[in-house]
Structures are given as C-alpha cells and as structure tokens.
Specification:
Blueprint: H1 22-51, H2 54-62, H3 79-104, E1 110-114, E2 122-123, H4 124-150, H5 163-175, H6 190-214, H7 223-228, H8 231-258, H9 261-270, H10 285-303, H11 306-313, E3 317-321
Helix pairs in contact: 3-4, 3-9, 3-10, 4-11, 5-6, 6-8, 9-10
C-alpha cells in the first residue's frame, strides 16, 4: 500500500540513535564499509607509489624497520612472559565486557556491599569489573618487575633515536602490504616496539589512574583530592583508553595471524622460537594453545553471570538479589 510504513524499518535503536531507522543504519554501515575499503585501497596504492621513488627506497634500505638492540638484550620469550600474555588478554576481554555492561546497566539484578557497610551497595557487575581490575593491576606490576629484572624491557623500551625513522619505515611497509622482514623472537620492529611501549607505559597507567577515580573505593568526600581530576574527565579518559586497547588488540591479532601465524603463536603462547625465522613455522603447538586460550576465555565470558559470581562475591562481602 502506497504510503504505508514498514514497522521494522521504523524501529528505533534507543535514545542516542532516535533519528535513525533500521534502513538508515544499514545505509550508514554500507557507506562506511565502502569508504573504509576505498580508503584502504588508496593508502596501499599511495604507499606502493612512494616505495617506487628512489629517495624513499634509499630511506627504507637505511632504516629497514628495526635497529640493533643493546648487547645485553635477551633473545627469546620466557615462559613467564607467555603466561602473562595469555592472562592479560584473558582479563582484558572480561574487563572490556564488564565495562560495557556497567555503562548499559539500568536495573542491576544483584548488589554487593562490603562487610560492616551494607549501606554501601554497588551492583554485582561493578564489583566484578573492579575485582578484575585489581587482578589486572597485580598482573601488570608483576610483569613490569620481571621485565626489568630479566632485561626483557630492552625489547619494548626504545633505546635509540633510530626507533622513529625505523617505525616510519615499518609503517610504510605494512601499508604497502609488503611486510617488513622480522623475527619477534630476536627483536620487534620499531613500530611494534613503540606500540608495546605505549600500551605498557602510557595507556595502562592512564587506565589505572582514571579507573581508580571512577571506582567505588575512591574517597568521594575528600574535596581536595577530587579537585585534582573531575569524575567526568576520568570517565572520558577511561573510555578513550578502552577504545585504544580494543583497536590495539584488533590490529595486533590481525598482524599476528597475517605475518606467519604459527611462528608468531609459538613465540607468544608456547615460548618456542629460534634465531632462524623459518624454525617453528610449521609447528602447531602455539596454535593449539591459542585455541585453548580462546576457549577458556569464551567459557569465562559465558560463565560470568550473577548465579556464578554471587557465591564468589559473598566471600568478600554481602550479596543481595533484587
């Protein structure tokens, strides 16, 4: 019938998207996908054209994407680092998931309060998010201590100004889809090094500080402390850091799988590798450990429900159900 409205097409997607129908959302997503594909193709063509210029080729030859590490730099990935890599990823998935749940939660089904202070109620979701945060911080502190105690810090902390031109060279090679030659068992390329340094020593501290300001443990009655950073500023920082982490993880996993998946997975999940970049290139050990880690994480995400969390939360306080 002419002029009749499609009830499905007119369905709204919440207050923030009140002006968009289903059809409009499909159109926006389609246009966005086209723009993304065209933009990516343009970037690849531009990068390949740049690499055809003699001056740029000379630059890439001089700065291949990686510089020589200090003589004291260790070779390889120790078992403790492989374990912490998994545990950090495990916690990060749960932290991001519960963080998004906290933002969406309107009527919590269960609440937690500390012993002796039953009036200080918080939702069970917030309690779980903050409990995960504590584990993540402890794991991070252990990681940093071991990093400097074993010399592994030289692999992710820039030790030469050559990191900048080498990072630019590596970025150009990545965009051109002509992957830079590397062996992460010996050294990361400069772009990776800057990325890992940013995650460990910039983004993570920002996440901890902003998260502490937002936590229920923050002394909200102390005006002097609260003047240092407002809760709104802390929330904006926290959300932006989360977006950075998600973007980093997405790019990181994509490149791991696209640049020698079995070899890279052996490095980070099985702590197996060699100065010979071809070694372990066909060894599936790291892959199966990767699959196991994904399975464990998926099970944890599925199990993180009030029926499972409540008995655990009761060990540390009181749980009440709506």
């Amino acid at each position: 019938m002419r002029g009749a409205k499609d009830p499905v097409a007119e369905r709204r997607h919440g207050p923030a998207a009140a002006r968009f129908t289903v059809r409009q959302w499909v159109g926006v997503i389609a246009v966005g996908a086209i723009v993304l594909v065209v933009g990516a193709a343009t970037a690849v063509i531009a990068a390949r054209w740049m690499l055809s210029v003699e001056a740029v080729r000379d630059f890439v030859t001089r700065y291949p994407g990686v510089y020589e590490l200090p003589a004291s730099a260790p070779v390889g990935v120790p078992a403790w680092l492989a374990w912490q890599h998994f545990f950090n990823a495990f916690l990060m998935v749960l932290i991001v998931r519960t963080g998004l749940q906290v933002r969406r939660e309107k009527r919590p089904s269960a609440f937690w309060s500390p012993r002796g202070a039953r009036k200080r109620k918080t939702s069970l979701t917030i309690w779980f998010h903050q409990a995960l945060d504590v584990l993540w911080v402890v794991n991070g502190l252990v990681f940093v201590i071991l990093l400097f105690a074993t010399g592994q810090w030289t692999r992710i902390v820039p030790t030469s100004a050559e990191v900048l031109p080498n990072a630019a060279s590596a970025a150009l090679q990545y965009v051109s889809l002509d992957w830079p030659t590397e062996n992460g068992w010996v050294a990361y390329n400069s772009l990776q090094q800057l990325a890992y340094f940013s995650v460990v020593f910039v983004a993570s501290p920002l996440a901890v500080l902003s998260g502490a300001r937002l936590s229920t443990a923050w002394p909200r009655g102390e005006r002097r402390i609260n003047r240092l950073i407002s809760i709104d500023v802390a929330r904006r920082i926290h959300v932006r850091v989360m977006v950075f982490f998600v973007a980093f993880i997405t790019a990181h996993v994509t490149l791991v799988l696209a640049t020698g998946a079995l070899r890279n997975l052996n490095h980070m999940f099985a702590a197996r590798g060699s100065v010979d970049p071809g070694a372990y290139a066909d060894d599936p050990t790291g892959f199966w450990l990767f699959v196991a880690s994904i399975t464990v994480t998926a099970v944890a995400v599925f199990a993180a429900r009030p029926a499972v969390l409540a008995p655990i939360a009761r060990l540390f306080g009181t749980v009440t159900v709506r």
